[in-house]
From TrEMBL:
<protein>
    <recommendedName>
        <fullName>DNA methyltransferase 2</fullName>
    </recommendedName>
</protein>
<dbReference type="GO" id="GO:0005634">
    <property type="term" value="C:nucleus"/>
</dbReference>
<keyword id="KW-0489">Methyltransferase</keyword>
<dbReference type="InterPro" id="IPR050750">
    <property type="entry name" value="C5-MTase"/>
</dbReference>
<comment type="similarity">
    <text>Belongs to the class I-like SAM-binding methyltransferase superfamily. C5-methyltransferase family.</text>
</comment>
<dbReference type="GO" id="GO:0032259">
    <property type="term" value="P:methylation"/>
</dbReference>
<dbReference type="GO" id="GO:0008168">
    <property type="term" value="F:methyltransferase activity"/>
</dbReference>
<dbReference type="Pfam" id="PF00145">
    <property type="entry name" value="DNA_methylase"/>
</dbReference>
<feature type="active site">
    <location>
        <position position="67"/>
    </location>
</feature>
<dbReference type="InterPro" id="IPR029063">
    <property type="entry name" value="SAM-dependent_MTases_sf"/>
</dbReference>
<keyword id="KW-0808">Transferase</keyword>
<keyword id="KW-0949">S-adenosyl-L-methionine</keyword>
<dbReference type="InterPro" id="IPR001525">
    <property type="entry name" value="C5_MeTfrase"/>
</dbReference>
Length: 373
């Protein structure tokens, strides 16, 4: 079994294989994501004890602690921020967990690697005889048209070890390329390449062999909805009149989008890209013509309205985060703004899956002292 912690929830699952149980911890929201599974428990992470976790016979812990104490635009209060209390609580009980706990995955914002919290985490892992590797990865590295650089650490308890040379620094790519499936002999690596191929195969033509090339956004757009459905996602006039020049506008043929945060749809700058069906030269022309009008005038507003600029739907954002359409649905009483907050605080499912496969590869082998740093 594995235990999944995040800022607002944790999941219990059976890996590898299908999710069999789900338990969710809710710290802030009054609603939770529905995965179609049976068991849900609402409680605070800080109420968990080592005995309780041991009783579940947990062998993997995956967690995404609150990122606000470490963000580049925040106060960076680190462990003095009360929002790290749940993380510190878990670090304090890790030494009391049984030897059946073998794996750890942690995700957070870029910058977490320079925090005191991260140093405490690494020190505890070393004290508990875990070997580990740190990464800074983004979905755009895996053909997904979204930039979301995040810190990851994967760790496993000796005598288990990794089937690639560990590096003392934070790696900014996987230890091997995924675009050539024939280059892998280990079954887990083949699974990683096959998993990534579903994204890579969407890249057009000869670009498919180029690492870091992304597919176009038209692959994640909701095309089965009537036009009136998208009216609720239109960028409001007040934003067009005051902040139009701050918008990052992308279209169906774009192969990029900016990181979506929990403030998407509420704040403008740095919270995520917006969508326009217009061609790039049409957008550029409209913006150029609007400069001849008084700021906020009706003439300027009409030009910008004509571009049909809207926010990406929560389903489209979820697709960029690699949540599957078939098994991921939000409860009907979750508002659009709440959905953006949940997704902005979430993880990229594809990268996490790749790292879990990477981490568990060769888990039946034994670590020797001359192969580990």
């Amino acid at each position: 079994m594995s235990l999944w912690f995040s800022a607002t929830r944790y999941y219990m699952a059976c890996l590898p294989g299908c999710l069999k149980q789900v338990k969710m911890v809710q710290l802030i929201m009054s609603f939770i994501v529905t995965l179609g599974l049976n068991t849900k428990v609402v409680r605070n992470i800080q109420s968990l004890s080592a005995k309780e976790i041991n009783d579940y016979n947990i062998d993997m812990i995956v967690m995404s602690p609150p990122c606000q104490p470490f963000t580049r635009v925040g106060l960076k209060r680190d462990i003095s921020d009360n929002r790290t209390c749940s993380l510190i609580h878990l670090l304090n009980i890790f030494p009391s967990l049984g030897k059946q706990w073998k794996y750890l995955v942690v995700e957070n914002v870029k910058g977490f690697e320079r925090s005191e919290a991260c140093q405490q985490l690494i020190q505890i892992l070393e004290d508990l005889d875990f070997c580990y590797q740190q990464f800074i990865l983004s979905p755009s590295m895996f053909s997904i048209p979204n930039t979301r650089h995040r810190y990851y650490i994967i760790a496993k308890r000796r005598p288990l070890y990794f089937n690639f040379p560990l590096q003392p620094h934070v790696m900014e790519s996987l230890p091997f390329p995924l675009h050539n499936i024939c280059s892998f002999t280990v079954a887990a690596y083949e699974k990683m390449s096959a998993l990534n191929l579903k994204h890579k195969s969407l890249v057009q033509g000869s670009q498919m062999t180029c690492e870091g090339t992304c597919y176009s956004l038209n692959h994640i757009l909701e095309t089965d909805k009537p036009p009136e459905y998208f009216e609720q996602f239109s960028v409001p006039d007040r934003v067009l009149t005051k902040h139009a020049w701050l918008l990052d506008i992308v279209g169906p043929n774009s192969t990029r989008s900016c990181c979506f945060t929990k403030a998407y749809g509420h704040y403008v700058e740095g919270t995520g890209s917006v969508f326009s069906p217009a061609l790039p030269h049409v957008i550029a022309s409209a913006y150029e013509q609007s400069r001849s009008h008084d700021p906020g005038s009706s003439g300027q507003l009409e030009l910008l309205r004509g571009l049909g600029i809207r926010y990406f739907t929560h389903r489209e954002v979820a697709r960029l985060m690699c949540f599957p359409d078939q098994s991921f649905n939000l409860p009907s009483d979750v508002t659009i703004r709440q959905a953006y907050r949940l997704l902005g605080n979430s993880i990229n499912v594809h990268i996490t899956a790749l790292l879990i496969l990477l981490m568990t590869a060769g888990d039946s082998t034994v670590c020797s002292s001359d192969t580990q740093p």
